[in-house]
């Protein structure tokens, strides 16, 4: 897309929104093409988000069947194993057959349209197959990132009342085995309603199998047919639930539906990455996060792309791994997270320069703000100064990308996600919700719907409205702070709520606090993020112990381990500081602003502490700063 085409598209959505959004839907194969296009209101009376509401389609047909005639023998998924010892190609035909088989296995287990299926798998092709198999029969998948702990798994299974779990014996990452089946077994002690566990063999480790509940997929698929009639789905039927962290309470089940989500995932995959038929596209995200859903599986496959699925990590066996995989599979488009770029940048240019990367054409970044230094290194060293960088801003809630520079249409500014895509209406507002104009900073809201928007919080529509639409009446609040410059470019400055972004993993500080107070030694905890060179943000915990507990280094380490086990290793605190008291207002509210400043070591600037119930606690916190 060039600049003129971008402007024309922006104008067309203004002048003829129905026509624009209808045309966009034509990129999919529908069993019944929708006549109702957009029916949305962000206001409480009435409040609803519906797209293409009378359309009928099946996502797996769009990702598989419709490509078979012309691209049946083209590779759909290139799988690269952790060790690099195995790479396995799944053509569209093979992926179609495997999906149908798994769909038939699920049906035989009694899974029906609308049932929730939990998927707790590593980065192996069977994960994509399981997702597509659910879509084929109209089941709703809930993928849980393999780094989550048994407790986190249990909470997610209970929340959506899922009766079946697909997992693997073990996962492999950076040479380490992850005990997936064991984690599931432990989780299921709290989930008596789960009737079936399907186990895929990845490492062939010996795992306990519970009679009557657990079965190996290899046994179940014996003799199962490789065709399966797709379930006709209404555009607004649920496709998946994906749990994500918010500023309060337990993780929310973000629900995406069938038609609008796929339109937006496939449209943005083509537009943002300028995807051209036959190219090899590699998004390094784990399928357990939304980026993996939209840009490893659904977007690329809907577009008949070749998508690389990588089981490993950026620095194993060596820090050249990413670049070697690019050469090995002749990757044209590479999409990763700033945290990976920063950690590899620390290793210097040599591990990059010793590889060719001559196939690379475009680079992408996602998940957190990218600092200009990392952006420049990515552009200059990885992309040899010849590949444009798309800095894509979006969220689990938005389904797929919202804002990014478009190569050829928008000039790049390192660290800016440039401008919203046609149809996405950004606005900056002040704390009272008053729209701000021109070059300024504010809270980022979106004033109108787009097809990929989440439809509800699973099981709690009220929470959906309250979380996103009540702060700035009738507008979707992203939770992000943002600056707009004199050229109308947007610069995301990070979350303004109590969500933190640690190595691109989204965490609620409330979740970590709740884990900490679950420990018998802890009376109270307050958690904030602070700037971290590699991880973007680190986790800083202020912990008040119970009166009879002695603060020791051992206890500090124990509490870090406790959070690892309660939530997952990626949530492990970087700092635990024992605090005899926390700074509170007289009404008992913890003043996080002050804690953030202490964590950031911005001590000259603690602001007004006179409203605190006991201003002296601040002195103690400053004196005993950890880090
Ligand atoms: C942040 C990941 C700056 C932002 C797709 C958002 C970004 C949160 C960018 C969503 C970017 C994502 N620049 N910040 N390009 N992309 N973010 O739900 O704070 O895991 O609200 O979705 O990540 O994280 P989530």
TrEMBL record:
| Residues that bind ATP | 367-369, 480, 495, 506
Answer whether the UniProt record assigns the keyword Metal-binding to this protein.
yes
Write one Pfam family the protein is assigned to: ACAS_N
Which residue numbers delimit the AMP-binding enzyme C-terminal domain? 511-589
Q: What does the record give as the reaction this protein catalyses?
A: acetate + ATP + CoA = acetyl-CoA + AMP + diphosphate
Positions with a binding annotation for CoA: 173-176, 291, 315, 503, 564
Q: Name one GO molecular function term.
A: acetate-CoA ligase activity
Q: Does the keyword Glycoprotein apply?
A: no
Q: Which intervals hold domain Acetyl-coenzyme A synthetase N-terminal?
A: 6-63
Q: Where on this chain does Mg(2+) bind?
A: 517, 522
Sites where N6-acetyllysine occurs are at: 589
Q: Which InterPro entries does the record associate with it?
A: Ac_CoA_lig (IPR011904), ACAS_N (IPR032387), AMP-bd_C (IPR025110), AMP-bd_C_sf (IPR045851), AMP-binding_CS (IPR020845), AMP-dep_synth/lig_dom (IPR000873), ANL_N_sf (IPR042099)
Q: Which PROSITE patterns would you find in this protein's record?
A: AMP_BINDING
Q: Which UniProt keywords apply?
A: Acetylation, ATP-binding, Ligase, Magnesium, Metal-binding, Nucleotide-binding
**For this protein, what is the EC number?**
6.2.1.1
- What region holds the AMP-dependent synthetase/ligase domain? 65-448
What cofactor does this chain's UniProt record say it requires? Mg(2+)
Q: PTM comment for this protein?
A: Acetylated. Deacetylation by the SIR2-homolog deacetylase activates the enzyme.
Family annotation (NCBIfam families): Ac_CoA_lig_AcsA (TIGR02188), PRK00174.1 (NF001208)
What family does this chain come from, according to its entry? Belongs to the ATP-dependent AMP-binding enzyme family.
Protein's job: Catalyzes the conversion of acetate into acetyl-CoA (AcCoA), an essential intermediate at the junction of anabolic and catabolic pathways. AcsA undergoes a two-step reaction. In the first half reaction, AcsA combines acetate with ATP to form acetyl-adenylate (AcAMP) intermediate. In the second half reaction, it can then transfer the acetyl group from AcAMP to the sulfhydryl group of CoA, forming the product AcCoA.
User: Know the name of this protein?
Assistant: Acetyl-coenzyme A synthetase
Source species: Phenylobacterium conjunctum
Q: Which gene encodes it?
A: acs
């Amino acid at each position: 897309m060039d600049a003129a085409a971008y402007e024309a598209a922006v104008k067309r959505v203004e002048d003829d929104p129905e026509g624009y959004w209808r045309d966009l839907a034509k990129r999919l194969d529908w069993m019944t093409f929708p006549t109702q296009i957009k029916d949305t209101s962000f206001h409480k009376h009435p409040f609803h988000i519906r797209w293409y509401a009378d359309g009928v389609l099946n996502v797996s047909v769009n990702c598989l069947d419709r490509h078979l005639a012309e691209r049946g023998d083209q590779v759909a998924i290139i799988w690269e194993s952790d060790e690099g010892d195995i790479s396995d190609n799944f053509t569209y035909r093979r992926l179609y057959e495997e999906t149908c088989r798994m769909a038939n296995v699920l049906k035989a287990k009694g899974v029906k349209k609308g049932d929730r299926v939990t998927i707790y798998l590593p980065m192996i092709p069977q994960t994509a197959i399981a997702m597509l198999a659910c879509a084929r029969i109209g089941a709703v998948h809930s993928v849980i990132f393999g780094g989550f702990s048994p407790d986190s798994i249990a909470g997610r299974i209970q929340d959506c009342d899922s009766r079946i779990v697909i997992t693997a014996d073990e996962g492999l990452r950076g040479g380490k085995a992850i005990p997936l089946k064991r984690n599931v077994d432990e989780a299921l002690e709290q989930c008596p309603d789960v009737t079936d566990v399907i186990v895929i063999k990845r490492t062939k480790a010996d795992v306990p199998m519970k009679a009557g509940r657990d079965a190996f997929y290899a046994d179940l698929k014996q003799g199962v047919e490789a065709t399966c009639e797709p379930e006709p789905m209404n555009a607004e039927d649920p496709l998946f639930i994906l749990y994500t962290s918010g500023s309060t309470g337990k993780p929310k089940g973000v629900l995406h539906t069938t038609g609008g989500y796929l339109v937006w995932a496939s449209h943005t995959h083509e537009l943002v990455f300028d995807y051209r038929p036959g190219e090899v596209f590699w998004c390094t995200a784990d399928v357990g996060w939304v980026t993996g859903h939209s840009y490893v599986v659904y977007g690329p496959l809907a577009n008949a792309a070749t998508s690389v699925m990588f089981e490993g990590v950026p620095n194993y066996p060596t820090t050249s791994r990413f670049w070697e995989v690019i050469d090995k599979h002749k990757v044209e488009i590479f999409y990763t997270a700033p945290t990976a770029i920063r950690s590899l940048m620390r290793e210097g240019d040599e591990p990059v320069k010793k590889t060719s990367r001559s196939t690379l054409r475009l680079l992408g970044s996602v998940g957190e703000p990218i600092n200009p230094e990392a952006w420049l290194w990515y552009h200059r060293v990885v992309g040899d100064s010849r590949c444009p960088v798309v800095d894509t801003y979006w969220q689990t809630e938005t389904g797929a990308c919202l804002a990014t520079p478009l190569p050829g249409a928008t000039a790049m500014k390192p660290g800016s996600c440039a401008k919203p895509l046609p149809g996405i209406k950004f606005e900056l507002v002040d704390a009272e919700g008053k729209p701000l104009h021109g070059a300024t900073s504010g809270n980022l809201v979106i004033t109108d719907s787009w097809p990929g928007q989440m439809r509800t919080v699973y099981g709690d529509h009220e929470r959906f409205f309250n979380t996103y639409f009540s702060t700035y009446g009738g507008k979707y609040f992203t939770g992000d702070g943002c600056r707009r410059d004199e050229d109308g470019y947007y610069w995301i400055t990070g979350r303004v709520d109590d969500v933190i972004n640690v190595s691109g993993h989204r965490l609620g500080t409330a979740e970590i606090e709740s884990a900490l107070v679950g420990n018998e030694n802890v009376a109270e905890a307050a958690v904030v993020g602070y700037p971290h060179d590699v991880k973007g943000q680190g986790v800083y915990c202020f912990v008040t112990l119970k009166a009879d507990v002695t603060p020791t280094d051992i206890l500090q380490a124990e509490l870090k381990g406790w959070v690892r086990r309660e939530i997952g290793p990626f949530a492990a605190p970087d700092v635990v500081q024992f605090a005899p008291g926390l700074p509170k207002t007289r009404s008992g509210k913890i003043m996080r602003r002050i804690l953030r400043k202490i964590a950031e070591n911005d001590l000259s600037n603690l602001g007004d502490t006179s409203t605190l119930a006991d201003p002296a606690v601040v002195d103690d916190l400053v004196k005993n700063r950890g880090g």
